[in-house]
Amino acid sequence: MSAEKQIPEGEEELLFIGGKQLLGQKQAVGLLTKSMASGRLAHAYLFRGPDGVGKQLLARILAAAVNCGQAKGMAACGKCSSCKKFALSAHPDFEIVSPEKGAIKISQVRELIKKLSFAPYEAKMRVVLIEDIHTMRQEAANSLLKTLEEPPADNLLILTADSSRTVLQTILSRCQTIPLYPLNAEESVEVILRENSEIGPKVAKTLARLSEGSPGRALLLHQQEIVPFCEKVVGLICDREKTADQYAGLVLQTAEQMAELKEDLPVLFGLLRLFFRDGLVHHCSPELDGEGGKYRKDWNSDDYFVKLQAIDRAEKELGRNCNRLLVCEILLFTLQK
Ligand SMILES: [Zn+2]
What we know:
This protein has 337 residues and is of the alpha/beta class. Helices cover 50% and strands 9% of the residues. The strands form two sheets. It has a five-stranded parallel β-sheet, with helices on both faces. Strands 1-2 form a two-stranded antiparallel sheet.
């Protein structure tokens, strides 16, 4: 799309690879573009940012750009044979090392070092992406240090790490760190819709709000079907047709399903909080609610505050390791009142 377009001065080039556009990350792109323009790329980078904000995509874009004869800054041409191979993730000189069973193992590092001792097959620069370097333990890290400090000629190493996790100092000191940041809401929605055509705009918006600028996390949440489950819970809370006994039975059953979410329970709490917050807005200014939520007419603003507080309390109790099932039951009964 962007390949032949003339970019007016001062405007940024859109960065694509394999049909995927990198959104946000202006600072990272700016730093890398500058290094490329001055011919001073580091030999090892660490892309550090939250999960799911485009670290791998940026690595692939950089890999394609350094190997494309007609790249403009970070934007590869997308047409030459090297670009086509990178776009398909089928370039023989692009290596990805990912954690196996939760960690990057010393055997993986040894295998990589052996590969690097041979010249690249066809690329100007072989690019090695080592993902989630924070999972690497001391022993494996030690075996990588020499390579990291001085990779064989024609090799570029790109490491990624989750910004909330600790990376060994010995690794940090041998890489140039490039920070990546959460995306804004619009960018998140755009990525979510692009990555999964089954997700509608409304759900995408909810997922984007929930995942705090990480479309990757949003897509993971979608897989867990937590949004439809929350809709079921909301349906139960708003249902005024059932008798008290019928309702109690359903609450207990639903609380059990909620408790089974375990570590993902806070995500459901987050969704419920969004529902009640939107309900409160709807109650105070109904004209602002374009989508016409299905809120209960008998709730006033005090009710909404009580319910929002109940969610906060439940979350705190979970943090203190209270009985999960009991916390869910009490919460559901309070929300339904
Ligand atoms: Zn190219």
